[in-house]
Amino acid sequence: MRFFSTMATALAVGQTAFAAPHKDHDSWGHDGKIAPKVLIISLFSPEADIWYEKLPSSGLGDLLDHNITAPGLSMLFPHVHCVSDHSICQMTTGESEINAASSVMAAALSGKFDLTKTYFMIAGIAGINPKYGTLGSVALAQYTVQVALQYEFDAREMPSNWSTGYFGYGTDAPNIYPGNAYGTEVLELSATLRDLAYGFASKANLSSDPTATEYGQRYAAVQNTSLYAPASQPPSVIKCDSVTSDVYFSGNILGEAFEEVTSVWTNGTGKYCMTAQEDSAVLEVLVRLAIEGLVDFSRAILMRTGSDFDRPPPNETAFDNLRIADQNGFDIAIDNIFNAGVEIVRGILDGWHTTFHKGVEPANYIGDIFGSLGGAPDFGPGSTTNGTGYKPHGRSGDEMRRRGVSSGMGRKAGYAKRATVGRN
């Protein structure tokens, strides 16, 4: 969920030819392709502009030193930008799931990059749940949950004993794990890398704003004040999870419904604190590329900063919270993308030869609901490949079809513990 703003600002930067190799040979693949250590993924102009404006003063380089085109990138954001030695690159996908997936896949398959050792950092603003943080807070996620991937009734037509019109595919009531799995419902990232990124980001001096602080303090009027205490605290770095929805939702009812979805779909582990439009799309692309050996999914980082609250404080309507009230969180959220993000980038570069070149072994399961990368998911029905993962070049897909395995595998008996809610 993001503050509305124009997307029609194409970057007026010139295209340059590939530069001669820099002395840091790690930034070039063996076949002469660009091999960035970090690829920053922005979603729209303000999230990208802050890197162009501030990175040069950090001493880490200027992202506009190299501007590389590739077929299939967004027509509004047609370049991948890199510093002079190509150790850091950045791209802007355009907002929404379709734009995000299309752009990342286009860059990865362009033939211009070797991304096998690259760390991917999704770095964008988001709506924030006041139970976990405040405007300007920085969240690092282990899960992203595609909460809108469900059936939906208009709330005026749902059964009278339901709390939401959303309920999972193949089910008959809310708060039950989907009976039909598409594969992108939940994506889990390396908690080990997330914790390292959290440590780096915690060094940042985060921006705040008096108006945003005052708005957050309004949640203290909630009857259970301790529940919303984080909203009235200064911005901080937190560990909690992201939900993905192209629908820009707002309000207590939907916020609480998607909190429950996040909990149920992650087997009680996930904690929804940030809402955005692209995370599941970007990470699903990385899963598919990882199957082919083109990227390392354990090198993905998801960072979001709070620009607006996902539900109103007491005595304010959901409409006023979304469209009328001046929460004043946008600018500090943009600032804190850089403030926290540059510390993560610096930490990876500084520790490249000692830690990050070889990779950070995850201590938890990583991947999607199908177990596509191997291992046993700690949510959902379990691996569709008995833990082996899918083979590249489509070989496992043909084998799975011959065995009768499909995205309808969630229908098997005993798949979900039914909730107490039901039809009226």
From TrEMBL:
The entry's protein name is Purine nucleoside permease
Keyword entries, A-Z:
Signal
Tell me where on the tree of life, at the top rank, the source sits. Answer: Eukaryota
Q: Which residues form the signal peptide?
A: 1-19
Q: Where is this region: Disordered?
A: 377-424
Is DNA damage one of the keywords?
no
Pfam families per record = NUP (PF06516)
InterPro entries on file: Pur_nuclsid_perm
